[in-house]
Amino acid sequence: MSDYLLEMRGISKSFPGVKALDNVTIKVRPGTVHALMGENGAGKSTLMKCLFGIYKMDEGEVYLEGEKVHIANADDALHKGIAMVHQELQPIPERSIAENIFCGRYPTKKVGPFPIVDHKRMYEEAEQLLKEVRMEYDPKAKLGTLSISQMQSVEIAKAVSMNAKVVILDEPTSSLTDNEVEALFRIVNDLRKKGVGIIYISHKMDEILRISDDVSIMRDGQYIGTWEAKSLTIDTIIAKMVGRELSNMYPPRDNVPGEVVLEAKGLTSVLPKSFKDVSFTLRRGEILGLGGLVGAQRSELMEALFGVRHLASGEILLEGKPIKVNSPKDAIRNGIGLITEDRRGTGIFSVLSIADNVSVASLDKYVEMKIVLNDKKIEQLVQDNVAKLSIKTPSSKTLIQSLSGGNQQKVIISRWLANDPDILIMDEPTRGIDVGAKYEIYQIMIELAKQGKAIVMISSEMSELLGMSDRILVMCNGRLTGELSGEEATQEKVMHFATQFN
Amino acid sequence: MNKTKNVDAKKLISENILIIIVLAMAVGVGIYRPNFLSGDNFANLAMNTASRFIIALGISGCLITKGNDLSAGRTVGLGACIAGTLLQKADYSGKFFPNLPEMNLFLVLLICIGICCIFGFINGCVVSFWQVPPFIATLGMQTIVYGICMVYTKNVPLGGYRDDYLNIAKGRLFGVIPYFFLIATVVGAFMWFLYNKTRHGKYMYAIGGNEAAAEVAGINVAKTKIKIYVLASALFALAGFMLGSKAGGASVNTGLSYELEAIAECTIGGVSTNGGVGKVSGILVGVLVFEILKSSMQFLKIDTSWQYIVQGAVIIIAVALDLRKYLAKK
Question: How many domains does chain B have?
């Protein structure tokens, strides 16, 4: 019997033109949490996809409890005891929790010669499983009624029900509130006590250091090493991940806030459960942080300012004059830009080129004779932005989907800069972006502020909020609960305001 | 380096497998029945291609924005019937409107386009404002247009067309270039310009690529989609007008199921049903390939029933191959 529950030895995988994995080895001990870290594009997801048989590895072997195994596909992996809770969950929201857990392997009973689904047993077993992941919920409820964190718990319950020996959690906390993270960690600890090996993929350093026993780090498809979590600090992890010392996570802020450019008075959503009576001001040259828990309606508030959502009441004053924003087009005309939180869902046009992605919101400027687009000027715009924001791409004709997350984000920033907005709203501007590119995005934000643009940054990352904001607004449950200057803000104060329910 | 070249060649073959098979088939038929490569057959092929190309271009905008227009064939039929009723010989015994004076050809074309555009406009509005899936919305419209066409023509087959109308199909500019070829070229050039050089084109690709992102980028999605469906109907009407001239007659069954062929042609030509992708040049190739396929089968004297079966299979395979490209990338 091997000391290790799961061993992946010498895994290599090439895609046309790139070596995605180069002789990577990962060994997971039973009853431990094994963090897998690396910048985006380091090969973490590729490695996990190889483990799951989604990709075929070119070289390498997988051992499960000391025995060599061949995993043909995800279903095969599940039956061999390897389960994965995906970054993007793939549940069936219109069916019950129990059906989601037992999807594809419903308990059956025989009626005559015909097997039919045994609902009674399914619900009983589901209830038992939910208890194991500390969830008191009716298994007959529709899955769609749960929050994302609860859905995640259901996914874990599903893994438990299949007696998974190895559970992979891929960025499980990216959209969870602190309380939900605590709940998840309790479940993870329960699993660990049962001897399950957990592979934990995350970008959040403090969480990694708290929850994991071992940390493996990858960089550019190569395995850098495995360390005990106790022996690491955030700085040493970052240094190993980027292969260089990052003295400071945030660039120095030398922008100077100026006069008020936008004033919002009593903004209230048309939706009853969304934001209510929110008033604030925004200054030129300022980075205004907007903090709060997930569900605090921060994105909704900003989307209303941008015309994607609608106001029931309230007033928006731009340089003292009231404006109406009923559509994104109105917002753009008034010099407002929005970089959405869900880059893939509402940001990039994945099948289009970088040039098209950059120019799509500002084409009106490049029309000649009322119809024809001036391709040369558009190309010039794209080249300028590629150079200015140092977007790493072979050409402007390259499809955006082939870029890394950080470069995609820069393309979207370029899209808005092309309109030369006075106000740029950035919703989670560095979500899912690796450490190096984050720093560059921060530099861009400061540079824009120095040019006199006003920036609103929604961020769920506490250190980013504290590190980047000149001023911080905190929301809770649709209401504005506090305002802090950059100097006085601390994690505790922000959390205090963020949890002012009722 | 060599290895990536191999991979590219393989990819090129697998992505264009249908085109390669059909061309190989055409060469085979050409050797087996030399008439296939005659000037007459090429002229015939060109005539068929012209109207089908225009229909395919019409439907391509819908497909690129992840939509569809299943009312295409029936709209073509309606266009042909309207033209037919207005362009009959004064002395034709079965004249639909016995007292109708001789109308200008171009005016009739505009009437056809104008009436058909109403249905395109409704399609666009239903898809944009009621959010009815385009497949269902236009399927419903298909039946509506068919019914309207039956009411209008009272189910009477139309014929006895004026010579100037028939001459559109028969005539040639300076005795050399067929008018059909000319019309198709102008429409093709217009669409290429529209897709590549205008905001409308860019917005169309953007909506097809990611509708939610297009909305956030300030694109008026509803307006763009309505324009696309109206333009599609206009092109269907034009194609119907042309087909009437070519056939010398029209009935409620003119244009039956042309939409399926147009979808197949677009897909063979690289328009993705996944949205956001498609070129005018590709559509032309798709139409040519499909027409060559049909012509080859006729030359091989394959039974008509079997031709339907083969065409249907090709449509399904074309879409399947298209979707495979995107699945393989995951």
Answer: 1
